[in-house]
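Person: I have long wanted to understand how a fold can be written as tokens. Underneath my words sits a plain record pairing an amino acid chain with its backbone structure tokens. Those tokens are not coordinates but codes from a learned vocabulary of shapes. I should like you to check that the lines agree and flag anything odd. The protein I mean follows directly.
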Amino acid sequence: MEQLLHDEWALLLLVMAASVVTVLATVLIHYEALTLISRFLHPRFENPRQQMMVVIIGIFTAHTLEVWLYALAYYLLDRLTPVADIIDVADNLSGSFLDYLYFSTVSYTSLGLGDLYPVGPVRLMTGIESLNGLLLIGWSASFTYLVMEKRWRL
């Protein structure tokens, strides 16, 4: 029993560390993506439709990378931790990376369908991913608004 508690605390610390790393990495990805989009827009496009296509595709690509990063973190946590049944995303998990990608997408967007759910300390990371996704989606929305306000003349 004492060993299990020790393992749970170690796993919790590992999940917290993974959460910090993924948050920092996704914020960096997002910042760099928005910077790249801004630089790419400046001299190349005069048509507002083209500008908005670049912005939306660039932002969508950034969010996709961020979701994949979280999915990879879930996958690695599940594969590398020695404690069984604490990091299971769901009972009906096939164990493929696609399960973690789907779960990450649902968590990142705060959709939370409930067909897959976190168990044990990874619940903390899922909540952090939802908060992180919400903040990054809001950042994307404000960036898109600023581009539209600056460049879209009616």
